[in-house]
């Protein structure tokens, strides 16, 4: 996960602050004026997590530069560099050289001293990826429409009372469910659209703990014809349904914190390092190659077994592709489905 925890060092935040202290960009987390845009749980990825903090700088003045009260300019830097401005620290390369391979700084920008990556964020976008399988995507889109706007999402999250969360009203700015890629190697004998990949993209001002994964779990039930699309509307009516029915949320690994948006007056232009970007692209290309080869090996096995199964003229029905979605649903699947509104309440 992203947030530091007392019982483990295997978090993004722990590795990040270890790198910041090691490179002497900060003295400690406690004195760094640190804010994060959001927190992602274990298993969830982030493409554009944003943090704000005070770091060491080579500059004497400019946006976000803090000059200590006891600072004395002796002019030695001016004598060394002539009249030119001092060159800023290459934060990206310094940090990426000591960070683990799966954590990378992509860009940075100076901001005003009162800026907060958390409280000044205008919107956050998440993506959840899944195969079509046997899902009725049109029914899911109907369910999505009920989520738009400001609602009380207490039936769509995991209660977080230990952290003082008592307000469950959140504003969904946009929600979109689209097929985003097609596996060109997908054999038509495997069910044509079955292996198409879809992305659910949700943008909101803020989200509650596990809100996206709960939303996806309910949309899966709608897409599987176990619930009507109107179940979303019903669960948003907390006057009629003040308590959340028992259900398992969807898996963590398809979820991505995809974008964090800020006002242009706060963040005008991100600063990149060409060499660092090139290294990251090459690293991701290597990961993609390994994963795609493994995927196609699995697909070849699947094609071969399916075609062999059909060639034996068996009467078995191969149209059941429920395992594709069941893989992304946590908990035990019962033989007899019990409607949500008839289940015990949390």
TrEMBL record:
Family, similarity comment: Belongs to the tRNA pseudouridine synthase TruA family.
Keyword hit for Isomerase: yes
Matching SUPFAM superfamilies: Pseudouridine synthase
InterPro entries: PsdUridine_synth_cat_dom_sf, PsdUridine_synth_TruA, PsdUridine_synth_TruA_a/b_dom, PsdUridine_synth_TruA_C, Pus3-like, TruA/RsuA/RluB/E/F_N
Taxonomic path: Eukaryota, Metazoa, Ecdysozoa, Arthropoda, Chelicerata
Domain Pseudouridine synthase I TruA alpha/beta: 145-263
GO biological process terms held by the UniProt record: mRNA pseudouridine synthesis; tRNA pseudouridine synthesis
Keywords: Isomerase, tRNA processing
Species of provenance: Medioppia subpectinata
Protein name per Swiss-Prot or TrEMBL: Pseudouridine synthase I TruA alpha/beta domain-containing protein
Keyword Isomerase in record: yes
One of the Pfam families matching this protein, by short name: PseudoU_synth_1
GO cellular component: cytoplasm; nucleus
Superkingdom classification of source: Eukaryota
Molecular functions (GO terms): pseudouridine synthase activity; RNA binding
């Amino acid at each position: 996960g992203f947030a530091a925890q007392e019982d483990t060092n295997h978090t993004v935040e722990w590795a990040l602050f270890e790198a910041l202290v090691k490179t002497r960009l900060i003295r400690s987390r406690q004195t760094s004026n640190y804010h994060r845009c959001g927190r992602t749980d274990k298993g969830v990825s982030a493409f554009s997590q944003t943090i704000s903090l005070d770091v060491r700088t080579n500059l004497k003045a400019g946006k976000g530069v803090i000059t200590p009260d006891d600072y004395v300019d002796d002019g030695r830097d001016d004598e060394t560099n002539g009249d030119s401005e001092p060159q800023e620290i290459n934060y990206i390369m310094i940090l990426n050289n000591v960070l683990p391979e799966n954590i990378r700084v992509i860009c940075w920008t100076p901001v005003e001293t009162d800026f907060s990556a958390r409280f000044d964020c205008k919107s956050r976008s998440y993506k959840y990826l899944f195969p079509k399988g046997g899902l009725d995507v049109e029914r899911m889109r109907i369910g999505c429409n009920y989520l738009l706007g400001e609602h009380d999402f207490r039936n769509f999250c995991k209660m977080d009372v230990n952290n003082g969360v008592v307000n469950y009203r959140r504003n969904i700015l946009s929600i979109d469910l689209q097929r985003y890629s097609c596996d060109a190697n997908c054999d038509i004998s495997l069910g044509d659209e079955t292996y198409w990949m879809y992305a659910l993209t949700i943008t909101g001002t803020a989200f509650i703990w596990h809100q996206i994964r709960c939303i996806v779990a309910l949309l899966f039930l709608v897409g599987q014809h176990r619930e009507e699309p109107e179940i979303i509307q019903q669960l948003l009516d907390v006057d009629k349904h003040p308590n959340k029915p028992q259900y398992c949320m969807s898996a963590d690994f398809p979820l991505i914190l995809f974008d964090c948006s800020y006002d242009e007056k706060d963040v005008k232009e991100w600063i990149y390092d060409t060499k660092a970007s090139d290294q990251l692209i090459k690293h991701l290309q290597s990961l993609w190659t390994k994963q795609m080869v493994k995927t196609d090996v699995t697909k070849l096995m699947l094609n071969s077994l399916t075609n062999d199964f059909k060639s034996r003229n068996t009467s078995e029905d191969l149209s059941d592709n429920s395992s594709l979605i069941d893989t992304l649903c946590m908990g035990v699947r019962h033989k007899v489905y019990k409607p949500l509104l008839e289940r015990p309440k949390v």
